[in-house]
Design a protein that fits this description.
alpha/beta, seven-stranded mixed beta sheet, four-stranded parallel beta sheet, 13 helices, binds 6-O-phosphono-beta-D-fructofuranose
Length: about 350
Amino acid sequence: MAKRRIGVLTSGGDCPGLNATIRGAVRTLNGTLGADNVEIVGIYDGFLGLIQDKCKVLTSSDLTGLLTLGGTFLGSKRTPFKKMEKIEEDGLDKIAAMKSTYAKHGLDAILALGGKGTHKNANLLSQHGINIVGLPKTIDNDIYGTDFTFGFHTAVEIGTEVLDRIHTTAFSHERVMVVEIMGNKAGWLALYAGLAGGADVILIPEIPYDIAKILQAIQARKDACKPYSMVVIAEGALTVGESKMKKSERAAMRQGNTATYSVVKAISDAGFESRAVVPGHMLRGGTPCAADRVLSTQYGARAAELICAEKYGYSVAVVGGKVTENRFADMAGIAKLVDANGDIVKVARGIGVSFGD
Ligand code: F6P
């Protein structure tokens, strides 16, 4: 049997479960094809490593201890899709460079672990003849065609712990604590962590808010002898007014800031003592939780099966609890957003959570 050479890269923002996913894929490839028949080539720093030929054959010691390891041992960079086909001023043709690295290392296929941008790049490379399989990662859980991305469950756990710890100070000091949770376009993380952490108000990009409604919810709690509140605000939450603006207008107005501090100010101005908490990249850090370790292993295994079956141009997925795959053409670059009228939002409203609308 000819030796199969499989490249692996991690691209975009890091998250827990990247290394565990690689482990799942490598172990399954070794188990299915026989370890002597597989060579794993690490491509460092995502697609940039493929462009710049930053590759190395990985040994078993490189591939040990991955299940619990946070971040990505391969390094990661954001390589914007819109610049992929652009020829640089120095004449660099990135697609040609990637094809050349692929050929130089005699790769049979690449496993690309990443989010929406990564899948767009993977789709492009697939169209250029590279055999590639995608594995959906992101704490944002916003990749179309899969119920869950790996990294999300861990971030929910971390966000929930932040809320639990902040809850006690909210209660002790009778304050309104406003916790900013990552998620620029999609509010999944804020919604899940908010629900798990008992938030009273959850603000997500998909449901524009009105500050008056937030104040009403806080006042209603005070009237019910609960003089403290927990507000979860997604990084990309926006007011009703902002939601009607063009993206460029909004960006100019925001100047890179989230809405968190303006919400805290409005709450303070209304007479409630308020503080902001921004856990930021802590939400993406450290070891994957058990649910993500299992999902990563399932995804890695499925991707390895696709490679063994020479079925390329797909991204692995989980739909209704079943591990499956989607063609890049059907999912690459499509955002999965929270449905403002969906079940989980209804459940939250049913237990009294305000979305500020
Ligand atoms: O996509 C994951 C994510 O953590 C988003 O939630 C967040 O908006 C973004 O990445 C932050 O990116 P960076 O790490 O480049 O600051």
